[in-house]
Amino acid sequence: MVLFTDQNRKELKRRFRKDLKKEILFSLFTTNSSLLTIPGRECPDCPQAQELLEEICALSPKIDLKIYNYFDALESRRQYDIDKIPAIVTESEGANRLVFYGVPQGYQFPVFLEGMERMSRDVSSLANTTRKGFSKVDRLVTLRIFVSSNSITAASVAKLAQAAALESRLISAEIIDVNGFPELRRAYNVSTVPKTIINDIVHIDGMISEALLLEKILASGISSTETAGQRFK
Q: Cα separations (Å) of 209 from 135, 159, 160, 213?
């Protein structure tokens, strides 16, 4: 996982002072830290996820962390559409939330930070023509991006998915570390990363451009009469 040196902390503090405008809230869904783990409730990556978020939060007064025990917080799980752990929800006032399943490390760590910062500043990384296209989205869309920490291409696709979600509140983006969820890897037949899945119907392997993602989203929306809580069902 990411280990912050003193120099890392100084650099991130300066970066957060400059780039964070609105306050950020991380919601971590995890397990109890007890050494006694109930069979079926194991989460080997949960302690890493919590340690990383606590380190990040210590670097800026504009970042806060809320921790939920996944197996007790049924209402919050429904609210955030969380169905596995560790799950990190990033949100800020007026912005669509982002979800990362696993521990954002390797090439995923800078993408995770950039998503948080762009959310805080209301700044888009999309081209103007693409932004206009995303304004036409009128149906609920769920993006699942399977990534790994050592794939720079997967990081690029994760960044694009987050940008799409921040551009339209009708788009939900889940970034999933494939190594932490082998059962999902099998269920979605993920043989390589990145893999983009739109509404559990359209599967795209490898790199994807802004224009192609927009095209697939516009063709694959869910009826807008559905509720946000039905996106992941």
A: 17, 11, 8, 6
What tokens appear for 178 in the block?
Answer: 């494939």
- CA dist 44 and 37 (Å) reads 10
Domains of the chain by start residue, with CATH = 1-123 (3.40.30.10), 125-222 (3.40.30.10)
Could you tell me the pLDDT band of residue 229, with boundaries at 50, 70 and 90? Answer: very low
The DSSP bridge pattern shows strands 195-198 and 171-177 to be unpaired
Of 45, 44, 58, 52, whose CA–CA distance to 13 is shortest? 58
Give the whole-angstrom CA distance, residue 100 versus residue 219: 25
Task: Measure the CA–CA gap between 76 and 45, rounded to whole angstroms.
Answer: 20
Rounded CA gap, 116 and 98, in Å?
9
